[in-house]
């Protein structure tokens, strides 16, 4: 049958996305396809850290009711059952949950895992309270497209007092990098395109952070932790912040960009489990986020780059971010002093 004919559509199935904002539906649809789940499941650092944090803490999971916020293919739900949970509830808005149900079934875990399709903020759970929340909510730059708001909603509504959150700590780091060649390719390119001045697009290119892997050899400064989120305490309003940073220059070199990454910690564990998405360690699908500066800073070992990082969820779509970075090279050489600021959009 022609798949475009009306009769091929299931006539009575309600569309769970109906009435949802376009950007919201787009977000959930992006998780329908198995490809994105393949990328996450194959991310060794990510998935192994969750598995270790859960398996190595059977004493915490034993006989507990667990909520898996944004369960996707139900991998974390299944880890929790294997660790001894009494029951796991997995919630996901995306249609991947249909496959998650089949996966749970073929693994013989259906009696221990209840999977619900819907928005976490709207579904009705079969338990009034849960002992543990597990969730993999992190986006690029930690907060881009992040569903942290959703985890906080679930925490406030369902988590028992003294309940546990896996993971429970996230820290954003910054560092300065030398990146002349690639900056020229991505930004300088617009100066002369087939003989024409394309600098209006140069401005646009500068406002868009790049998500890419950064070679550790390109890092010119020490890292600087800017913000740590404690998942037990953080409030949605804390995701808009303005914070100072200070980067100590480690060698004489140019600095073309500031990069950001995040570390994650499961501190409830007997032996705390952590992973980093920084340039100094193993690849993760979050890579790093590169913010090109307007100028090039010429730095000498021992000098500092100081400035302010601010972030605000976009007014129209909270999953998008408005980010600003100001920077100043604190040098005693007046010829090399430099400062500036730039605004970026992650959308
Ligand atoms: N836990 C899985 C999937 C993580 S990806 C794993 O670790 O592999 C995040 C998932 O959360 C996506 O499948 C997305 O559809 C879901 N999600 C995000 N916000 C949600 C919300 N508000 N309600 C329900 N599901 C949500």
From TrEMBL:
Location of the Protein arginine N-methyltransferase domain: 168-331
Keyword Transferase attributed: yes
Keywords from the named record: Methyltransferase, S-adenosyl-L-methionine, Transferase
GO molecular function list: histone methyltransferase activity; protein-arginine N-methyltransferase activity
Domain Methyltransferase: 66-162
Domain of life of the native organism: Eukaryota
CDD domains recorded: AdoMet_MTases
Protein name: S-adenosyl-L-methionine-dependent methyltransferase
Species in which this protein is naturally found: Pseudovirgaria hyperparasitica
């Amino acid at each position: 049958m022609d798949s475009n004919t009306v009769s091929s559509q299931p006539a009575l199935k309600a569309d769970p996305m109906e009435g949802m904002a376009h950007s919201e539906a787009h977000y959930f649809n992006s998780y329908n396809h198995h490809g994105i789940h393949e990328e996450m499941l194959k991310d060794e650092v990510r998935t192994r850290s969750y598995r270790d944090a859960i398996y190595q803490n059977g004493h915490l999971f034993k006989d507990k009711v667990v909520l898996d916020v944004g369960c996707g293919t139900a991998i974390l739900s299944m880890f929790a059952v294997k660790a001894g949970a009494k029951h796991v509830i997995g919630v996901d808005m995306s249609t991947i949950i249909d496959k998650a149900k089949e996966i749970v079934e073929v693994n013989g875990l259906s009696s221990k895992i209840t999977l619900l399709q819907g928005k976490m903020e709207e579904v009705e759970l079969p338990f009034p309270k849960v002992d543990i929340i597990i969730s993999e909510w992190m986006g690029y730059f930690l907060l881009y497209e992040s569903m942290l708001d959703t985890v906080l909603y679930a925490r406030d509504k369902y988590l028992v007092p003294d309940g546990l959150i896996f993971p429970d700590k996230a820290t954003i780091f910054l560092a300065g990098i030398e990146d002349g060649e690639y900056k020229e390719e991505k930004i300088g390119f617009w100066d002369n395109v087939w003989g024409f001045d394309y600098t209006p697009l140069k401005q646009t290119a500068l406002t868009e952070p790049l998500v890419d892997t950064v070679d550790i050899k390109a890092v010119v400064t020490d890292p600087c932790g800017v913000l740590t989120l404690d998942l037990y305490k953080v409030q949605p309003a804390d995701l808009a912040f303005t914070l100072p940073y200070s980067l100590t220059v480690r060698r004489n070199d140019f600095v073309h960009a500031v990069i950001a990454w995040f570390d994650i910690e499961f501190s409830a564990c007997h032996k705390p489990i952590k992973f980093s998405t920084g340039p100094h360690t193993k690849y993760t699908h979050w890579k790093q986020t590169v913010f090109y500066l307007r100028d090039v800073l010429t730095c000498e070992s021992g000098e500092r780059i100081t400035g302010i990082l601010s972030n605000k969820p976009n007014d129209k779509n909270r999953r998008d971010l408005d980010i600003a970075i100001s920077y100043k090279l604190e040098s005693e050489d007046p010829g090399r002093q430099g400062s500036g600021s730039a605004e970026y959009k992650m959308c």
